[in-house]
Amino acid sequence: MRLGIWIALLLISFSTQAIAEEKAMHKYTNALIDEASPYLQQHAHNPVHWYPWGEVAFAKAKKEDKPIFLSIGYATCHWCHVMEHECFEDEEVAKAMNDTFIAIKVDREERPDIDQVYMQVAQMMNGHGGWPLNIIMTADKKPFFAGTYIPKYSRNGRVGMLDLSTRLKKLWTYDRDKLEESADKITQLLASNESNSWAEAKLDVDALAKQATADLKQSFDHEYAGFGDAPKFPSPHKLLFLLREAKSHDDKQALSMVEQTLDAMRAGGVFDQVGFGFHRYSTDAQWLLPHFEKMLYDQAMLMMAYTEAYQLTGHKRHAAVVREIATYVLRDMRDETGGFYSAEDADSEGVEGKFYVWSMSELEDVLGKDDAKRFAQAFQCSKQGNFRDEATGKITGENIPHLSAWMEQGLSPALDNMRNTLFQAREKRVHPFKDDKILTDWNGLMIAAFAKAARALHEPKYLQAAKDSADFMLTTMQQEDGSLWHRYRHGDVGITGHLDDYAFFVWGLIDLYEASLDATYLKQALALNQHMLQSFASKSGGLYLTAHDAEALLVRPMEAWDGALPSGNAVAAMNMVRLARISSDSDLEVATDKLFQTFSGAMKRAPIGLTSMISAHVFAAKESIEIVLAGDKESAQAKAMLDAINRLYLPYAVVIWRDEASMKLIPFIQYQKPQGEGMTAYVCKNFQCNQPVTDVQSMLKLIQE
After folding, report:
1. Residue 348 β-bridge partners
2. Minimal CA–CA distance to 118: which of 186, 192, 50, 177?
3. What percent of the chain has pLDDT over 70?
């Protein structure tokens, strides 16, 4: 015991000494120095006197009678870096800010609850939002100003930080009543929006799905694929929705839209042609010029979209992209714990995209003139270059490698060898910053993606990657009372879990159960789902973003709209439908029905914005399939049955393995016993079960008829 205490004290001593040494190396150090977030640590040596969100900052604002300057961003946000360099690292700006405000920094990935509340404020006040998100508010958290990127000096109609600080100090001193009146009105409007009932009369689910499909067809870009104009986002949840509709209604146009978009993205500059993985989005309509940051959640969601497209079509080019994304994630985004990192920055050496672009002379230096010419022809590179600087729009003489099309045969072996040679050379460059925090919600998505890919591609290493992450989450990110932590970094866990942590992790656990047939994961999924309902459910049936015992914010946010990711409510709804089908738990059916009713008005008003919720609603209303397998899991017959099931695209099916552990969770399957010594499949549709079958072809006939 004494030795353990001595070691702990020694580690604390080393940590304290390291912090002291780091402080001595910098001219300025503020209160962010002790924070785990890489984004907050990026600002720890700004001359701005930043504080983390917490009572210390709010108490100081009240004591010094100052408004609060709240700045929200994330570690791989390009314009966050620009504003930091232009304003927060500038001593003149810092002096003005320190004189006028108490400054608070928030990592939106750590605190999505705070971000959602104040992003709604920005959208109400300005009609748009984005990051960096900058809010000025009273010490009781009531906002009266919202903006995004703010330069040092005012220009082109955009107020600068120096002018803003001067004006706000004057208004706060001499005209505070107007600011507080404005803050009260904004807060009241925000509260009224949150309290409005979204529920309407009973919905026609099929009509909703058809309308959402029609809206997506209307917004489809027939020239370049994807939806809308620039900037163009991957929106994989929309692709997943369209795949389901294509399957259900034999909608060839919907399927074509999905495949065109998947192929255009894979061919474009938005895909890292040299090292794999997708960038955040395309700044143009052609998918050429990306915003270069790479987010874990994009890799996960796109991996699922390509996997399901492969299952539905059998086109091998989609499976190839799944493998490429997996290669990138396993190589560059996996921690030794088994968890997955959050993101990679767009910038390196202070320049956006520098890590990823190539001049012709660089290609020739690495590949030689002949191969460089062949590579340039295939990947659309030239001496003039195709890379335009996002800020200036000027051609730089550098190239973003991209293909004219993504074909079924993929790259030739010769081109792939050249690509790999360039990758090895690129590894010697200065890498973009990696945000190495591990988030429960995004890891849940990655678990689901690897589990799906493991089934569809029969790839054991993908299943192991999903297991490793899930096991890490269950041992490290789960507290003794069953609740979840949100963030892990370098041995430190923290921040109470939000709705998305539960919903996305349960999603991963369900897919992992169906991939591994290990009832441990199903048991955890059921328990976490129940904990989620107890901690986040409103009286109406919708789920709040924050738990009942979480910090009270200006309002308690609840969201059903899809953004870059499906909403937590939509994912929770899909999880509960799947768990209800697996476990035959009628209480989950009731809870799901209440959730759909809560958001019925929103679905009816704008179905294109809630495609994930509609997908879950369709599943709940549809003739689903339950497949129960019983017998020797290690037998050749078992493997043949599972391989046959996993090859199929079955978005409205669940797979259950009958063993002792599963029977404790699902009592009804005790009666579905193996027939004889071989494998037996029980296929149930629309709450009715067929006679058991013991061969693959009979099973497939029952599933597909």
Report:
1. 351
2. 186
3. 95
